[in-house]
Amino acid sequence: MTREQGSLVREWKGSVAFITGGGQGIGLGIARALAKRGVRLALADIDEAALASGKGELAALTGVETYRLDVRDREAFAAVADEAESSLGPVDLLFNNAGIAPYSSLPRLQYEQWDLVMGVNVHGVINGVQTFLPRMIERGKGGYVVNTASGAGLVAGPNVLYTTSKYAIVGMSESLKHAAAKYGIDVSVLCPAAVATNILRSTDTLGSAAGLGQRAAARKSTEDYISTGLSIDVVGEMVLAGMESKATWILTDSEIAPYVKMRAEALLDAFPAAASGVS
Fold first, then answer.
1. Residue 92 lies in domain
2. What are phi and psi of 185, to 5 degrees?
3. Please, are residues 241 and 188 in contact by the beta-carbon 8 Å criterion?
4. Which CATH number covers residue 195?
């Protein structure tokens, strides 16, 4: 790290980044931002066509290796990590970004849906952390972890599956930031609002058999909302800016700010009067 105009600026060139969901969406936006700064890239994704496209685009800028990976598969995660570090060098930037955007009404909720959503959105992040953090700690040279959650991880909504998985990632990241600091490893959690991606299509690929998905009218409304979101390139640059400032939370806009305030105030109001010093 160096200091420039009074703020921390990361020395990106020479680093190696491992990005899950790296062939598309926010993961690709992060990869593009990193590639411009000379970071070598290991892109992991379940979509082989997206990986091929991403590598074709970014290989002219930096070293890129791609790996088909289902983030729920711990053994595959470890094997891919070994391959990536053998080809590119030690991974010091980890982006646990792969995820799905599920929906199920309460009457249709089944264990199969819970298992899929928690497997991808929560255990996929756990697998990334547990695969790479011991390596970073053993090398003793620090590192950075960015976990992708959502604004839904800060304020609860009616989508129970999605909200549960994203709250888990926010809590995990906040705790991990405290625990990893002693090893020189920084942690941020990305909590975006709408970003123009194909996440619903990706969710369909994994979730159709489990009965995930919205009715047509609601699905159209969700698609319209997502399509008006920020571009993946804007979000990618926001992520790197957040890392340079070592932000705990990387937020893409202020859409949910009033609701976060309402939640915080309601939580504080819920404490017994004695706890707040009121007699």
1. 2-276
2. -105, 120
3. no
4. 3.40.50.720
Catalytically annotated residue among 67, 103, 144, 162: 162
List own/partner pairs for 114-119 with CB under 8 A and 24 or more apart: 114/161, 116/206, 116/207, 116/210, 116/212, 117/161, 117/162, 117/164, 117/165, 117/212, 118/164, 118/165, 118/168, 119/72
Q: pLDDT per residue over 225-240, tens digit each?
A: 676 778 999 999 999 9
Q: Let me know: does 64 contact 55? Beta carbons within 8 Å.
A: yes
**pTM score:** 0.90
Q: What tens digit of pLDDT does each residue of 17-58 get? A: 999 999 999 999 999 999 999 999 999 999 999 999 999 999
The number of residues making up the chain comes to 279
Residue 225 annotated as catalytic:
no
**How many whole angstroms separate alpha carbon 33 and alpha carbon 267?**
38
Count how many domains the chain has: 1
